[in-house]
Automatic annotation (TrEMBL):
It is a multi-pass membrane protein. This is ABC transporter permease. It is found in: Cell membrane. It comes from Metabacillus litoralis. The keyword Lipid metabolism does not apply. CDD domains: TM_PBP1_transp_AraH_like.
Length: 325
């Protein structure tokens, strides 16, 4: 067992050596500029912040491996949070029931995306762009554009609680979901089918793979993860906010691309996405510690995405040349 774990760890490090070095260099530079970065409280805060993005990113990895994209996750965060807090604060629902209802809302939006993408010729970019506007509009309509406060300790502890007064609960959820996603992508037929569909959908079709079901699952899972992020985020903010999750899809896509998943589909790993999300989280935290304006942070993240995609294109061309040679 120990040998297997050691082999898996070695393989993981080799596969992600480049971005691991990038993460380490980033951490060293930030800690030299601001030593507070390495404090226990700050590191736990980074993990808490990263967890929200990583919920989205692990599902986005599946969607992008299929050759798709999901621009609606940020808006789904907002509508999920609004629905959950409305049911608790205004309708008197028990917390557990309101949370389930919120997650179902996320899944419904995700399933809608998956159904339309799988059954029509409308590009995923357009489908999820439309859903992004629908979900955001629904969040504003339901909340009348105002935050919905929830003063419930049981609800607020979902996103603000700790295990052993040290590890934030959102990090525990993250570990569970990462494990689930890893098992799906590496240990099941469903995961292998995703790579097959993303690599060559026509060949996958002739091989008897039900492409529609694969796409429906990936987008539904993406909606579910956005729902989880919405519940956790609204719990942390003690309210459902129609503006929540704004541009969250940017961070999720950045994490996936930085993690080595190809935007053209067919290749990528959950393990790489984890490191990509950590880079985005550490970068955001470091810029905050250095007092960099949030406006400039958008610029930096945009540049990071552009560079990452360019690197992916260059790598693919080199691989093609090597294969021909």
């Amino acid at each position: 067992m120990l040998l297997k774990i050691g082999h898996a760890t070695t393989k993981y490090v080799k596969e992600n050596m480049g971005i691991l070095i990038g993460l380490m260099v980033l951490c060293i530079v930030i800690s030299l500029i601001n030593p507070d970065f390495l404090s226990t409280n700050n590191l736990m805060n980074v993990l808490r912040q990263v967890s929200t993005n990583m919920y989205l990113a692990i599902a986005m990895t599946m969607v992008i491996i299929l050759g798709g994209i999901d621009l609606s996750v940020g808006s789904i965060i907002a509508v999920t949070g609004v629905v959950t807090t409305m049911l608790i604060a205004l309708a008197g629902f028990p917390v557990w029931l309101a949370v389930i209802a919120g997650l179902l809302v996320g899944m419904i939006f995700g399933a809608f995306n998956g159904y339309v993408v799988a059954t029509t010729i409308i590009p995923p970019f357009i489908v999820t762009l439309a859903t992004m506007n629908i979900a955001r509009g629904a969040a504003y309509v339901l909340s009348d554009g105002k935050p919905i406060r929830v003063m419930s300790d049981s609800f607020n502890s979902i996103g603000s609680g700790y295990v052993g007064d040290l590890v934030p609960l959102p990090v525990i959820y993250l570990i569970v979901f990462v494990l689930i996603a890893y098992l799906i992508m590496n240990k099941t037929k469903l995961g292998r089918y995703m790579y097959a569909v993303g690599g060559n959908s026509e060949a996958a079709k002739y091989a008897g793979i039900n492409i529609k079901k694969i796409k429906l699952f990936a987008y539904t899972f993406s909606g579910l993860m956005a729902g989880v992020a919405g519940v956790v985020l609204s719990s942390r903010m003690f309210s459902g906010q129609p503006t929540a999750g704004n541009m969250a899809e940017l961070d999720a896509i950045a994490a996936v691309v930085l993690g080595g998943t190809s935007m053209t589909g067919g290749s990528g790993r959950i393990g790489g996405t984890i490191i990509g999300a950590l880079i985005i989280g550490v970068l955001s935290n470091g810029l905050n510690l250095m007092g960099v304006s949030s406006f400039w942070q958008y610029v930096v993240k945009g540049v990071v995405i552009l560079v990452a995609v360019y690197a992916d294109v260059v790598k693919k061309k080199r691989d093609q040349i090597s294969a021909l040679a």
